[in-house]
Amino acid sequence: MQETVALDSTTESTAATRTGKPARKHSEQSTSRAKQDTILSPRFYTTDFKAMDRFDVTPVREEWDALMAEFDLDTNREHFVRPEDFVDELQELSPELYEEFLEFLISSVTSEFSGCVLYSDTKKQSQNPDIKNLMGYMARDESRHAGFINHCLKDFGVGVDLGFLRREKKYKFFKPKFILYATYLSEKIGYARYIAIYRQLEANPEKRFHPIFRWFKQWCNDEFRHGDALALLMRSQPELLRGTNKLWIRFFLNAVYATMFVRDHQRPVFHAALGVDTTEYDMQVFDITSTISEQVFPFKIDHENPKFLQHLQKISHNIEKMNEASRQKGFAAKLTQISSAAGAGITFIKLYMLPVISNELPETVRLKPAW
Fold it and tell me: Which domain range does residue 178 map to?
């Protein structure tokens, strides 16, 4: 495990003085933020490990073995080691950008560590050598990712206590098929998000306000590889992609897209600093993710339908109103919370009911990260 993966301790780096942040924040505050459970915050999951252990990858054995060989090569072994001059690249950030970037990092470290915990727990419970090996590889990668982000947080003096987070954050139980749908989309949309940012900053290096973005290309290739493994698992169990399970796939697609859209539109300064329009960036990410997901899902969301964006914008507006009302007191504020939540829920149903585009699954599952 790399030097950067210090999961239990928090330290304050002298580099924090270079950030221009408005005030010191204690690691307890950032850990508390990571521990929160809201409709938008990353969650920790557990599952039926015995059912997961019964998965048989025989139908995709050739592609599976080739992918496991790639995992074993561990081409990113040395990638997540920070150079000595890392802190020299830190720039002064405005108070607004600091707060939104901090929220981005805390959300990201929580999401990465959530994957690490789930994959690690599955490995410990598994007797199936295929499942055990895969989960070990993915836990290894996610541990590095979480450790790297947390080290960047410590540069600001606000590292998250990941050991405490593992013990104290609430866990949500998902059936194995829901774990596969959700984590597959999480890994693939993670790839799409990181590669879109990387390409934007590759073309506009003056917008790179923090050195962490230079790590995103190889980093997101880890996410891509994880998604391919989960796609192979689903393709090896074809019943997961048929019948009423299509309704669940549709739900997770829309839920993941809506969550990303709402969350991203709460970071306008962050996206402006990167030089991207938030809505255009999100639609680009959806397009990449949708194209990739053709490897496993029997349909994709029609992002070109004007109502798709309209519904997302209305959900985002309702969530914003709900959050504003939650910070106020009184009966009127409570009514606003209730009506806004109802409005978001009704609009999500409309989003869910939009027509989808059928997709014939390809014979070969795996893809190359060519974006």
Answer: 24-305
Nearest-Å Rg of the Cα atoms of the chain is: 20
- Report pLDDT digits (tens) over 152-208: 999 888 888 888 878 878 889 999 999 999 999 999 999 999 999 999 999 999 999
Neighbours of 102 (CB within 10 A): 20
Taking alpha carbons only, the member of 291, 110, 261, 45 closest to residue 188 is 291
Helical (H) or strand (E) element with 300: strand 299-301
CA distances in angstroms from 108 to 119, 255, 278, listed in the order given: 17, 18, 18
Token reading at 84: 């000595």
Domain count within the chain: 1
Q: Is residue 342 part of a domain?
A: no
pLDDT tens string 128-154: 999 999 999 999 999 999 999 999 999
For the entire predicted model, the pTM comes to 0.89
Please report the DSSP string for 243-277 in residue order.
Answer: TTHHHHHHHHHHHHHHHHHHHHTT-HHHHHHHT--
